[in-house]
Amino acid sequence: IQDSRKLASTLLDLKKTIGVPFVRLTLPEEQIYLFTISIPKIPAEQIRGTIELSLEQYVPLPTGEAIFDYDLIREEAETYILQVAAISGFVVGSYVDLCKEAKLTPACFELEGGPLARVLVKNEDPKTYMLIDFGDARTGIVISTGKRVLFSTTVPLGGMMLTGLIEKSFGVKNEEAEIMKRTHGLSRDVENVELFNTLIGGVSVLKDEIFKNYAYWNTHKDELGNARPQIDEIIISGGNANLIGITEYLEASLKTPVKLGNVWTNMNYEKNYIPDMNFDDSLSYATAIGLALGDFEAD
């Protein structure tokens, strides 16, 4: 949070507009440590203490500073396999203080990947997906199996980088560069060859980051020495996900099916109902919609 007072003021104005006192938040992926551990079968009330004793092996934070939560992945004959997410208490505290200043009550804190999996992966779907949230300033990369997030990272590359390349190459202002990017994207028309060559350099850097994580996941065993489930498909969301040609380019490069996400996948709409938001715009709200759906997971 760069300017908590200004952000709190903005949230307070929003609260006055919508009249909702509760908020669900995602925490910055870069600050979260996600890992899998195995512990002996013990009474439920002892699990948290057991995790805490081994936390320093996985989390480079001083004793007592980390806040963590866990989820049971599976139960074996004599052990529990747990997924643990840990983060600095100071980071969480900054968000709690923000909520207090904005007079909002936090209902939950989540990893960014959780809402993405909740909204993009169909309920009861057991497959393994790589979920890519292609934003303006950064791109989130999540791997989930059966909607459970098993891996999450963020790379500091996004749509603004591509817009900046167009500005520099064509000598145009930001607004015009953004229009050029969204109008033509990675189309290879004769009149757009120079634009394609400009954008492909930036997109290839992002592709390399995606491939690095893709290849590592598919070729390395997990923390317990078990083979990881192979990625079946890649789903893209985010404000820059509808860049023309991006799905085709990634699919050809990664040799894996790639598609745009549908944020309404798990909505129980009546047949033929069309949401009051066009498809391209909806991709920008995948995380927000996923957070909202968290209220209905038990229904």
State the distance separating the first and last CA atoms: 34 Å
Instruction: Let me know the largest β-sheet.
Output: 5 strands, mixed
Along the chain, the helix and strand elements come as HEEHEEHEHEEEHHHEHEHH
Number of strands: 10
Task: Give the percentage of residues in beta strands.
Answer: 15-25%
- The overall pLDDT average reads 90
Strand order of the largest sheet: 8-7-6-9-10
* Radius of gyration over all CA atoms, rounded: 21 Å
Helix content: 25-40%
Low-pLDDT segments? none
Question: Which class do the helix and strand fractions yield?
Answer: alpha/beta
What's the total helix number?
Answer: 10
Summary keywords:
39% helix, 299 residues, globular, 3-stranded antiparallel sheet, alpha/beta
Written account of the structure:
The chain has 299 residues and is of the alpha/beta class. 39% of the residues lie in helices and 24% in strands. The strands form three sheets. Strands 8-7-6-9-10 form a five-stranded mixed sheet, sandwiched between helices. Strands 2-4-3 form a three-stranded antiparallel sheet. The model has no long low-confidence stretch (mean pLDDT 90).
Question: How is this structure best summarized?
Answer:
With about 300 residues, the protein is an alpha/beta fold. The chain is about 40% helix and about 25% strand.
